[in-house]
């Protein structure tokens, strides 16, 4: 028996929910159909926003035969059969689901057929095509974002499902607050919304769906991402930017989303990097506490692991920020890439051709801060620039100023001749 979501899948562009930017009077899809001019496309967007449905409806409107190829499960033989069919029929419309999972070799194999127009492809993906799709394929396709549906659009779809002969055919009554509740939980995914409504029809009594029925049937909101999709990395990015922006409320929200998916390893990596990158020398103790918090989290595991992680993230949010150490190493790397230089002879492990009093003296710690450590060509270069955002880094900066004031020298012999105090 087909699901409600399957039964309600639109067959024409007219029945598609939302997407006014491409389905409006002057929208791209409208013009493609009006002028009978098929083009290859990449459709990207969140799950359940209608990418594959749009592609199928477009093929129907163009009255073109189409084939669906799933890049996750399909193999080379399947694709070769599609190409041969296209040659026999002088062209074919091919919908490639999960196109971001098509490896580079198979993407390259498609190029000549897309280039010649033998294949009109519509690739559907939840991943950002600018990161996941071969540039050669991208350059031959128009990239279109398919937007998540609004709550109003999802409610409209649910109402239609209740009365449609293809759907529930007026067999059930449903309270308006239930439709709003489902729309909010669906996070823009109409397929998820239809599935929720179908569950409600199973648990309800007397063909009347109430809010209690909805709460009994739908136990969790639609999380909308997995670890391989852009939304997952967007959530990690949201967490880091909330910490950087000193917003503990934003950080707790994104942390909660990540905890739902039980990925302690990625969370640990991102938060520790954030601690040293964004807080750094402004509060080094917070960086150490972050490492300890994740050690504790790994020991106790979820769900209790959320407590030390939340504690350290709030600590990072409300700490002063300093990116001085990150900027310092990035500046040094840039200098190295532009002009790689050798260490001065007196710093080398086994200096050759230097007299004893021209060498680095391990027994004179009072002279060490007077020695020049950079090569002569960049002797005055300052990679580290303090951020005066905390008392700790202000103290470091004060010592830094003192050292810069007396300067450094490469004349080791003159330094070594200074008498010990």
What does the model show?
With 421 residues, the chain is of the alpha/beta class. It has 20 helices and seven strands. The strands form two sheets. The chain has a five-stranded parallel β-sheet, sandwiched between helices. Strands 6-7 form a two-stranded parallel sheet. The protein is elongated. Mean pLDDT is 86; it is low at 224-228.
Protein topology:
Layout: H1 4-7, H2 20-23, H3 28-34, E1 41-44, H4 51-62, E2 66-70, H5 76-89, E3 92-97, H6 104-116, E4 119-125, H7 129-132, H8 135-138, E5 142-145, H9 151-163, E6 173-174, H10 176-186, H11 190-203, E7 208-209, H12 211-217, H13 230-244, H14 248-259, H15 264-279, H16 284-300, H17 306-317, H18 324-338, H19 391-406, H20 412-416
Structural class: alpha/beta
- How many beta-strand runs? 7
Order of strands, main sheet, comes to: 2-3-4-1-5
Q: SSE order, as H and E? A: HHHEHEHEHEHHEHEHHEHHHHHHHHH
β-strand amount: 5-15%
Count the helices. How many?
20
Sum up the overall morphology in one term.
elongated
Question: Uncertain segments of ≥5 residues (pLDDT<50)?
Answer: 224-228
Major beta-sheet overview? 5 strands, parallel
Give the overall average pLDDT. Answer: 86
Percent helix range: 40-55%
Give the CA-CA distance, first to last residue: 93 Å
The value of Rg in angstroms is 31 Å
């Amino acid at each position: 028996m087909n699901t409600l979501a399957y039964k309600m899948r639109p067959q024409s562009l007219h029945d598609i929910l939302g997407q006014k930017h491409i389905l409006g009077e002057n929208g791209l899809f409208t013009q493609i159909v009006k002028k009978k001019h098929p083009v290859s496309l990449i459709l990207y967007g969140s799950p359940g926003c209608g990418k594959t449905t749009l592609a199928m409806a477009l093929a129907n409107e163009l009255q073109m035969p189409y084939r669906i190829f799933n890049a996750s499960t399909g193999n080379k033989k399947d694709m070769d059969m599609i190409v041969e069919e296209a040659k026999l029929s002088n062209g074919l419309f091919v919908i490639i689901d999960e196109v971001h999972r098509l490896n580079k070799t198979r993407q390259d194999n498609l190029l000549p057929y897309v280039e010649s127009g033998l294949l009109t492809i519509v690739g559907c993906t939840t991943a950002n095509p600018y990161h996941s799709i071969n540039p050669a394929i991208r350059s031959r396709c128009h990239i279109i974002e398919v937007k998540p549906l609004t709550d109003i659009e999802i409610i409209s779809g649910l109402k239609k499902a209740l009365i449609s002969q293809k759907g529930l055919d007026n067999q059930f009554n449903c309270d308006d607050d239930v439709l709003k509740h489902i729309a909010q939980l669906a996070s823009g995914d109409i397929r998820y919304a239809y599935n929720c409504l179908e569950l409600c029809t199973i648990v309800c009594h007397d063909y009347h769906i109430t809010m209690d029925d909805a709460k009994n049937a739908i136990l969790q909101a639609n999380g909308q991402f997995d670890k391989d999709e852009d939304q997952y990395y967007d959530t990690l990015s949201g967490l880091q930017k909330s910490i950087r922006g000193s917003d503990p409320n934003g950080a707790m929200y994104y942390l909660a989303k990540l905890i739902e998916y039980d990925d302690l390893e990625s969370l640990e990596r991102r938060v520790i990097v954030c601690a040293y990158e964004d807080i750094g020398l402004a509060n080094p103790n917070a960086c150490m506490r972050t490492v300890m918090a994740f050690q504790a989290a790994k020991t106790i595991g979820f769900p209790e692991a959320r407590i030390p992680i939340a504690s350290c993230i709030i600590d990072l949010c409300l700490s002063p920020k300093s990116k001085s150490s990150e900027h310092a190493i990035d500046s040094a790397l840039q200098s190295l890439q532009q002009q790689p230089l050798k260490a001065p002879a007196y710093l080398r492990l086994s200096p050759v051709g230097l007299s004893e009093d021209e060498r680095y003296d391990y027994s004179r710690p009072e002279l060490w801060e007077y020695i020049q450590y950079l090569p002569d060509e960049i002797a005055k270069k300052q990679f580290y620039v303090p951020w005066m955002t905390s008392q700790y880094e202000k103290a470091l900066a004060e010592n830094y100023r003192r050292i810069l004031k007396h300067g450094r020298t490469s004349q080791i012999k003159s330094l070594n001749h200074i008498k010990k105090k």
